[in-house]
Design goal:
- This protein is of the alpha/beta class and 254 residues long.
- The chain has a single domain, classed as NAD(P)-binding Rossmann-like Domain (Rossmann fold).
- The chain is 48% helix and 15% strand.
- Strands 3-2-1-4-5-6-7 form a seven-stranded parallel sheet, sandwiched between helices.
- Strand 4, helix 4 and strand 5 form a beta-alpha-beta unit.
- The protein starts with 8 loop residues before the first strand and ends with a strand.
Length: 254
Amino acid sequence: MDLHLAARVALVTGGSRGIGRAAALLLAREGARVAVSYRSDVDRAAAVVAEIADAGGEAFAVPLNLADHESIRAAVASVLDRWGRLDVLVSNALDTAGLTLWPPTAFEELAASTWQPFLRANVDGPYAVAQAVVPAMRAQGFGRMVMVSGTSGLDGQPFAAALATAKAALHGLVRTLTKELGPAGILVNAVLPGTTLTEHIAAVLPADARTTRASASPIRRLLDPAEVVPAIAFLASPTNTGVTGELLRVSGGL
């Protein structure tokens, strides 16, 4: 399917690794010019940019820190300065803010000093990124936003209260922006991956825990990032003309 992304401009937050990297590569293959945002690892972001360039695409790396709204505004401004438009936002970045996925943290042991920075980064950050891109999208009469959330935002996740709460907050934002921005030609959706075998999950989740999660899945395995991003690319594309306000699970059936 031709997603009609040629000459479109996409900003992928957290685009240097995992689902963000896979989304940046797929959008570029479909013809989009891609701004690959990173928080600190410029070398990883540069490697994604080089991979896109080697395949004949156009990309550049841009620093963006979810906890720093000035860096968010600067990142969006740099995209507009470079390409003059911004058609697609894939809001994928997650700031762990010192919260560890493993070992699990019981809710009653979750300190406010951990809870507050995590929610501040992962609720306030996506809010600020979305707000920063709206003026350009509104002026164009076209925009696509895809928030990368997670199934925990719908189902809850024991021992991950901060993560589930942040993701649930994104769902409220998606549903609200759908109604507010739809008349301007801006469609807003969320993709909800289940446990996906990213570099981060492979590094922090023990093998036995990964096996347990895979066994619970109807497809008996964890997803690869490449299996998640086709849904993101479609929702982010001009081919999508009527899907908005949706929370799309891409979870292997979980």
